[in-house]
# Entry
Amino acid sequence: MIIVTGAAGFIGSNFVLDWLAQSDEAVINLDALTYAGNLENLASLQGDPRHIFVKGSIGDFDLVAKLLAEYQPRAIVNFAAESHVDRSIHGPEDFIQTNIVGTFHLLEALRAYWSKLDGAAKDSFRFLHVSTDEVYGSLGKDDPAFTETHRYEPNSPYSASKAASDHLVRAYHHTYGLPVLTTNCSNNYGPYHFPEKLIPLVISNALAGKSLPIYGDGQQIRDWLYVKDHCSAIRRVLEVGRVGETYNVGGWNEKPNLDVVHTLCAILDELNPRPDGQPYKAQITYVTDRLGHDRRYAIDASKIERELGWKPAETFETGIRKTVQWYLDNQPWVENVTSGAYRQWIDKNYGANA
Ligand code: NAD
Ligand code: DAU
# Structure
């Protein structure tokens, strides 16, 4: 079996759903259930013995040590983190505690466990750390996309905390030989994306008749990847990635924010026209820019394509249409998340375990 941390969040829950759709290898889901953790994402696994949920923090050394001893996993995939840049600007403390200190305690528990393994169990064990392209900082308009050797230049408390965690992971390999793999991925979108991030926020605000906030001039560029393609990349790296290596993951889909919002509005106009016949783009509002806002991210995914034979299955056009359709088909999920009712859902279905 494997341990997946942060698997009640956006990418982690997609990862577990895809994993168990393709394999019977059980998953221990270690998640602290912060505001971003929502077990309703995994409602289809209710009663499935292949999914074992444990509420707790990656920073709890004793708990992680107990889980490692009890379940003897062959791998850990670490999604657990504070992930929202705006929140890190308003309150960096949680980002330092979870992303840096939490990763440190997780690594310490893993080191103690792994150093006592021997033979095939030791050789085949893997720790895969899920990171972000934001650690590389911001690109100019004509700069080449980020490769794995790009200098780390994080600009927000979020990206600085992720950069620190990447460095710790690297150091535990270099110093203690821990068999680590790191992935640095671009912006994800898709089902179960918490509506504080651009794409789900715009879809849910549009449907609720609210304004669609564009920070600054809306010309900041992000490189978008459908979440299930990120999950397939992680599976591939876990399977055949070279220990100690980092792999950039992206879909070669650079888009200015305003173009993304216009695309979302156009798809909504087609699939769910406003009752008054007006276009959704009429709801766009320009608001004060994010502090220290990175201008452009772009991932050069050549290494993972060339060395591991990974390619995304979705283009931006197919993925974004699927995403809008998913939100239209799952309005109760959006309502539960925006109203906070998902907390009651978790209490009712998981009771004391959550
Ligand atoms: P998310 O905020 O949706 O989910 C994070 C999950 O981690 C939540 O379920 C939360 O409860 C859990 N968590 C938080 N602190 C914890 C702790 N101390 N112990 C255990 N669990 C804890 O985040 P996401 O968007 O799914 O991102 C997952 C990972 O992927 C993060 O490490 C993030 O940096 C990285 N990443 C995200 C993107 C993206 O576009 N969303 C892109 C590249 C990399
Ligand atoms: O690049 C990978 C990163 O992508 C991940 O590491 C982060 O965890 C993830 O949150 C995401 O960070 P961003 O800051 O790029 O995502 P966000 O959805 O918050 O914003 C996308 C862009 O849209 C960014 O330029 C800010 C802008 N924006 C965002 C919001 C929420 C707006 O213009 N208006 C908004 O209301």
Summary: The chain has a mean pLDDT of 96. The chain has one domain: 2-350.
